[in-house]
Amino acid sequence: MMVTRESLLNWAMIAALLLVPLAAWSLDEPFIITLATKAAILALAGVGLNIALGLGGLISLGHAAFFGIGGYAMGILAAHAQNYEPLFEWPFLFEGSNQMPLIWLVAVVFSALAALVIGALSLRTSGVYFIMITLAFGQMLYYFAISWSAYGGEDGLSIWVRNDFPGLNTLDPIQFFAIAYVILCGALFFAARLARSPFGLALAAARQNEDRVEAVGLTPFTLRLTAFVISGAITGLAGALFADLNRFVSPTMLSWHTSGEIMIFVILGGVGRLYGPVAGAALYILLEHLLGGISDYWQIFLGVLLLLIVLFARGGLIGAIAGREKAHG
Amino acid sequence: MTYILVLEQILNGLQFGVMLFLMAAGLTLVFGVMGLINLAHGSLYMVGAFAAAAVAGWTGSFLLALAASLAAAAAAGALMELVVIRRLYRRNHLDQVLATFALILVFSEGTRWLFGSFPLFLDVPSYLSGPISLPGGIEYPLYRLAIILIGLAIAAGLFLLIARTRIGIQIRAGEADREMIAALGVDISKLYTLVFALGAALAGLAGALVGAIQSVQVGMGEPVLILAFVVIVIGGIGSIKGALAGALLVGMTDTLGGVFLPRLFTLFMEPASAASAGASLASMLIYILMAGVLLVRPSGLYGGST
To answer: How far is B230 from chain A (nearest CA, A)?
Structure first.
């Protein structure tokens, strides 16, 4: 593979995301490690969205649904485990779980199922209808979570202790960061392979010219639905990690502001760039931390910055540094 | 359960639907004429409500407050169009979504900065407060009845504007072929600003009218915005007629579902679980309605092909 400025930048970013928390660890600054963990998890959510958005051209404004389902998978399993109330007794006794691998599996399966249903309905439409319908389905789950009093309703669900991962102490910030970082790297590797696979090429082709893809005998609907499901599953996994980071899940994770924010991570970094969400989420966390310290109304600045990027610098952060070449397409 | 309760709830549904129509009309016009998806439409609703609450606070006059909501929202809309929106017409939907989402952040936080986080209150004027007796022995709040009448009058006015006036002809021509009407000498960018400001004014008026029933607070526009999206998706994007049909359908479904589903569930469930299951299902009902409409007609009730 040719070494481009973009691939150098990608390596630099992924290295920085590792080195900053390591430095913070040696300086005993747990707060910075937590910020880096948050950036890695949000970047993971963005990597998920980017498979639908960047590769598939599907503008989903409802990815908070999957993020929240992942969060609630964590909340519900862990709440039952900590209260010793069985989640169900038939066909076998299941008391919930505080094991991360099982929680992740449940989060991925349920967010993939939700993406399958939402995608199958929404992909009947296209363009602006698709945007609004994904938004509406996201809101539907949001209102459902608010009225679902068994699991906290509007107040959400708190977990006393972070869930366990075999062999690690997840309460140690740097060890929990390591989990999030490894998963992010795995997802980036997977997304890169996916983009170059026959499936990814066909999906990108369906984005660029639907008729030609159909003419060679592929079905754009199936390609897009598959991408939407994969995308939802990765975002759902990020949701489970995010809820574990905060030891809290609430309907806010499902609100359409969350969908907008996940989209902002992708756009701040640069649409269709593999590492765009990493740059975007890191920049977002940095802005939140720096501007949030100056003013309570820091989102005004975020809004103005986002406007300027959309209107004048469409390649995002990576585009501004690495030039106009595309990561894949 | 009496027929009076049912009639009352039907009127409530009508009132909600009419307000949704005021929101949805602007959205669907802007999409139909300019091909633009505007998430910041809910911010204009909020601007209208805040302008009305502020003016009512200074002058004590409800009519002045309504006028202020129209003027402030139209001005904010025109400004939004001139500074940001007109750069987005030729962009793809993703850019439009992001830029207008950014506008929401600016408007919401800006309003919070100006007015604080606490909700403001806009009082119903004395001549519109209290119940009124309708034929059939129904006691119904006069203010809500006034909202229904104002909303229906505006809907009628809008249909006349679009069907009968020169501006209406230009708007319809702009939907059909914008290059052609520019070539015929219509100043298209002025027309776009005008349409955008018109939609903004309607949203602002809706915000002020609803603000007197609920509280006026930051973020109040967003739930309504999303319902307005559901309305225009059901009705068919770009169609005013569809917006009216969709708004009434959504208003009725949401209101009647919220009241009657929990009661319906008590027929075969325990009261406590029936209330919560009914409320959960009722909150999802309009989205189920939308999914149902889309299964049958993917481009909405009155939509052409997209």
So the answer is: 7
Of A128, A139, A256, which has the smallest distance from its Cβ to B37's Cβ? Answer: A128
pLDDT in tens, A247-302: 999 999 999 999 999 998 888 888 778 899 999 999 999 988 888 888 888 889 88
- Which sign, positive or negative, has the C-alpha torsion A89, A90, A93, A98? negative
Percent of chain A with pLDDT over 90: 60
Distance CA B199, CA B299 (A): 22
What pLDDT, on the 0 to 100 scale, is given for residue A302?
87
* Residue B200 clears pLDDT 90, i.e. is over it: yes
Whether the CB of A297 is below 8 Å from some CB of chain B: the reply is yes
pLDDT digits (tens, 9 = 90+) for A2-46: 567 888 888 888 999 999 999 999 999 999 999 999 999 999 999
Distance from chain centroid for Cα B160 = 19
Q: Which of A157, A40, A165 is nearest to A102 (CA)?
A: A165
Q: Where are the alpha helices (DSSP H) in A89-209?
A: 100-122, 127-147, 173-196, 198-208
| Amino acid (1-letter code) at residue A91 | P
Rounded-to-integer distance, Cα A230 and Cα A52, Å: 8
**If 0-12 CB within 10 Å is exposed, 13-18 middle and 19+ buried, where does residue B119 land?**
middle
- Residues from chain A that touch B31, judged by Cβ atoms under 8 A, are 128
Alpha helices in chain A (DSSP H): 5-26, 30-50, 64-83, 100-122, 127-147, 173-196, 198-208, 210-215, 220-246, 256-269, 276-294, 298-312, 316-322
**pTM score, two decimals?**
0.89
For all residues of chain B together, what is the average pLDDT? 89
ipTM > 0.95, yes or no: no
Question: Residue B178 is encoded by which pair of tokens?
Answer: 């914008």
**Which residues on chain A are in Cβ contact (under 8 Å) with B94?**
53, 59, 267, 271
Is pLDDT of A327 > 50?
no
Residues B244-287: tens digit of each pLDDT: 999 999 999 999 998 888 888 888 878 777 777 887 888 888 98
In whole angstroms, give the CA distance from residue B107 to residue A303: 9
pLDDT, tens digit (0-9, with 9 covering 90-100), for B34-58: 888 999 999 999 999 999 999 999 9
CB neighbour list of residue A86: distance below 8 Å, 6 or more residues apart: A80, A93, A94, A95, A96
Tell me, yes or no, if B299 comes closer than 8 A to chain A by beta carbon.
yes
Q: Which strand (E) or helix (H) includes residue B189?
A: helix B188-211
Are B232 and B27 in contact, with CB atoms under 8 Å apart? yes
Exposed e or buried b for every residue in A271-309, given b needs 16+ CB within 10 A?
A: bbbbbbbbbbbbbbbebbeebeeeeebbbbbbbebbbeb
DSSP secondary structure string for all residues of B101-126: HHHHHHHHHHHHHHH-SSPB--PPPG
| All residues at 6 or more sequence positions from B127 whose CB lies less than 8 Å from its CB, including other chains | none
Q: How far apart are CA B169 and CA B175, in angstroms?
A: 10
Q: Can you tell me the mean pLDDT for B69-87?
A: 95
Task: Please tell me which residue of chain A has the smallest CA distance to B233.
Answer: A129
> Which residue in A299, A304, A308 has the most chain B C-beta atoms within 10 A of its own C-beta, making it the best mutation to test that interface?
A299
Contact A239, A111 (CB under 8 A): yes
Chain-centroid distance, C-alpha A120: 20
> Torsion angle, CA of A73/A76/A82/A83, rounded to 10 degrees?
-160
Other beta carbons within 10 Å of B306 = 15
Phi, psi of A248 (to 5 degrees): -160, 140
